[in-house]
Design a protein that fits this description.
By secondary structure, the protein is of the alpha/beta class. The chain is built from seven helices and nine strands, in the order βαβαβαβαβαββαβαβ. The structure holds nicotinamide-adenine-dinucleotide.
């Protein structure tokens, strides 16, 4: 873990109370970073930060709803106050929900998915960049997209569209903020076991057929990709989408015909 050189670095993990966020908070802390665990559920944020402190780390809990611009602003300033500075922002928040096909999507479904998956990335990342610019220090932003933003997403059109927009934002923020010394990257997970996502046998069987590695990923494997991008191990990498999907997106093969 010394390779990641996170000792003395301060990281805000947005959505750190559960799933991929909790796994990322644990890894960042294990690699030496001080971690502000943010979750809209205060009990989750407190439980994870207490766990990190019990393991010898420095951690604090922050509870805000980052789908609101003022919540995102408060999240960044409370994390910086709690840790005595900020170098890394990892934003994990996002969630799919089943929708109709695009022709029949209800406006309220679309608005919900926009709010859950897109707005907060602009709000939290923007608040982070303004703070780093004012303090004249660089940093690293890592966000969690999805292969749904790279592939077609039948039955999940709004979710895929928000993740595709996030991929676009990743590249734009990377270019706009490179002069500030801020790197911006995203991880795009494939189908993943998380605290919340317990996949049924049908999905596991399908994974055997459609994923070259023959299995569903685990939240710790997504967290490792986020750790890499957040650390100086990725010091020359910005604007990239690191796909962690067991090869699912490369299965369509050229057969030489
Ligand atoms: N599980 C998968 O198969 C998969 C695949 C691709 C992408 N992803 C992406 O991975 C990310 C994490 O997924 P997960 O299943 O680990 O998440 P999760 O839903 O289990 O955990 C997210 C945490 O964020 C908190 N949260 C939600 N909305 C918030 C808000 N507005 N403000 C503050 N906190 C909020 C929740 O309380 C929760 O504790 C998401 O962006 C998801 O789209 C997941």
């Amino acid at each position: 873990m010394d390779l990641f050189k996170l000792g003395g670095k301060k990281a805000l993990v947005v959505g750190g109370g559960l799933g991929i966020g909790r796994a990322t908070a644990r890894l960042l802390s294990g690699a030496g970073a001080s971690v502000a665990v943010l979750d809209m559920d205060p009990a989750r944020a407190e439980t994870v930060s207490a766990e990190l402190r019990a393991s010898g780390g420095i951690a604090c809990a922050v509870s805000e709803d980052v789908s609101l611009a003022e919540g995102a602003e408060a999240a960044v300033s409370k994390a910086a106050a709690g840790l005595g500075g900020l170098d890394i922002l990892v934003n994990i928040v996002g969630r799919n929900s089943v929708t109709e096909g695009v022709a029949d999507v209800k406006p309220e479904q679309f608005e919900l998915l926009l709010s859950r998956n897109l707005r907060h990335h602009l709000y939290t990342s923007g608040a982070f960049a303004r703070r780093q610019r004012a303090e004249k220090i660089g940093g690293a932003v890592v966000m969690v997209a999805s292969i749904a933003g790279i592939l077609s997403a039948p039955g999940a059109g709004p979710y895929g569209a928000t993740k595709a927009a996030l991929i676009s934002l990743t590249k734009t923020m990377a270019v706009e903020w490179a002069p500030l010394g801020i790197r911006v990257n995203s991880v795009a997970p494939g189908i993943t076991w998380t605290d919340r996502n317990q996949w049924g046998q049908d999905i596991q069987d399908r994974a055997k057929r459609t994923i070259p590695m023959g299995r569903i990923g685990h939240q710790d494997e997504i967290a490792r990709a986020a750790l890499f991008l957040a650390s100086d191990m990725a010091s020359y990498i910005t604007g990239q989408i690191l796909v962690a999907d067991g090869g699912m997106t490369i299965i369509a093969a050229y057969d030489g015909a």
